[in-house]
Amino acid sequence: MDKEVKLHGFWSSPFVYWVVWALKLKGIEYDYIEEDLPNKSELLLRYNPVYKKVPVLVHAGKPISESPVILEYIEEVWPHNPLLPKDPYERSVARFWINFATDKVRSALVSFFWAREDDKKEAAEQMFDYLKISEEQALGDKKFFGGNSINMVDLIFALFTCWIQTMQQVVGIKVLEPSRLPRLHAWVNNFKEEPIIKENLPDTERMLEHYTRIRSNPN
Ligand SMILES: N[C@@H](CCC(=O)N[C@@H](CS)C(=O)NCC(=O)O)C(=O)O
Asked: Which reaction is this enzyme known to catalyze (predicted)?
């Protein structure tokens, strides 16, 4: 029987993983529909006519698009195993870092991935600066951004797990090194060791092949 919750996704998309992890951490059953992005399904185009992107979450026939919006929706509809702090101030701090990661750090990662030979070092340093700020100001000495357990900030910063690791290999520069970002580096390992995350990560070989192909042939 069809489930009430459906997720349209793509296997290498970090935005899709944010939603997968949130649903799994809350124990929500769902049907997963893998999209062929060069050849999107009619349903995806109907559900997300503005951006035509994944992820799209469909709950009781109603579509929700844009991953941060989807995460907020999941948190509101299924408040158990919370992904945001209860305290309003702490919640605003979490949202501040979610914003910082999706805006500043994510664009720095994209610029790093696409940088030409001459600009690579500068792009790497810009990303390092943002990661250092995140390490010092948001993570501190905690195990996770959420404290002792994973919260929404951890899910968003997960861009700096498999995705940054693959991109560093493709670009040929390492930014997230234990000597320069020791606490963030330890966080990556802690995050990837959490059972729900560990069971739901993209295959590293396939990621490397995929991102190498994208970088050498953007179209
Ligand atoms: N801002 C969107 C970004 C989603 C996004 O970029 N999805 C990509 C896959 S990683 C996509 O669907 N690309 C298809 C396209 O652009 O045609 C979100 O947070 O959900």
From this structure: RX + glutathione = an S-substituted glutathione + a halide anion + H(+)
Grouping H, G, I as helix, E, B as strand and the rest as coil, residue 111 is helix
Residues in CB range of 219: below 8 A, 6 or more apart: none
Locus of tokens 């590293």: 204
d(CA 183, CA 125): 18
Please name the residue whose Cα sits nearest to atom 17 of ligand 1. Answer: 53
Q: Which atom of ligand 1 is nearest to the CA of 14?
A: 10
What domains are there in the chain, each with its CATH number?
A: 5-77 (3.40.30.10), 88-216 (1.20.1050.10)
Residue 218 is predicted with a pLDDT of 66
Minimum CA distance residue for ligand 1 atom 6: 53
d(CA 28, CA 24) in angstroms, rounded, equals 6
Tell me the pLDDT tens digit for each residue of 122-161. 999 999 999 999 999 999 999 999 999 999 999 999 987 8
Q: Is the pLDDT of residue 219 over 80?
A: no
Exposure of 110 in the CB half-sphere (CA atoms within 13 A): 9
Q: How many CA atoms lie within 13 Å of 94's alpha carbon, on the beta-carbon side?
A: 24
The predicted-structure confidence for 88-111, as pLDDT tens digits, reads as follows: 999 999 999 999 999 999 999 999
